[in-house]
Amino acid sequence: MEDLLSPFTLSAYRSFPGVAEQCRETRLWVRALVRDFHDVAEAVEMVASEFFSNALRHTASGRPDGEVDVGIVALAAGVLHLEVIDQGQATTRAERQPLDPMRPGGCGLVLAGALSHGWGRVPAEVDPCCGVHTPTPDDYTGPMVTWAHFHTRIRR
To answer: Domain Histidine kinase/HSP90-like ATPase spans what residues (predicted)?
Structure first.
């Protein structure tokens, strides 16, 4: 029987408690997973940290007993896919705003866009790869997947 090659070179998923101290743990976990992808490792780590922080700040994940789920998949074709899943019920929405050097903070999603090949948010019920251009209803309060793609030259 012929061995079939998997299209995945990395597939990992983990839940983190929804507290600020876990942002560091998320970065360390991501760093350990993507270190072999040295051309995008720092970018993936930084974007994961930003998405995690936004989940705490803007969703029910930051409430007591909240959680944030993080997934990473690397494809043999040279794409690394990051997902951060929040618990929904956003009280405020994380939106990309015009860059204002005088405003503290607020640059994270601009950086995510600059560091990744693309990023977006879709309801957790929608496949992020298929629902990239699916508009989210304004009254949707369920869990959201914030995703980013990174192109890498590294093949494992």
So the answer is: 20-116
**Backbone phi and psi for residue 149, each to the nearest 5 degrees, phi listed first:** -110, 140
What are the CA-CA distances from residue 90 to residues 27, 31, 56, 60, 94 (Å)?
23, 28, 10, 6, 9
Spatial separation of the C-alpha atoms in residues 113 and 124, rounded to whole Å: 21
| Better pLDDT: 104 or 123 | 123
- DSSP strand E in the chain: where? 8-17, 67-75, 79-85, 118-123, 144-151
Domains of the chain listed by start with CATH number:
8-151 (3.30.565.10)
Structure tokens at 17: 């408690």
Let me know: does 89 contact 60? Beta carbons within 8 Å: yes
22-34 vs 41-58: helix crossing angle, rounded to 10: 150
Please provide residue 119's backbone torsions phi and psi, each rounded to the nearest 5 degrees. -150, 165
Query: According to the model, what pLDDT value does residue 139 have?
Result: 76
User: pTM for the complete prediction?
Assistant: 0.83
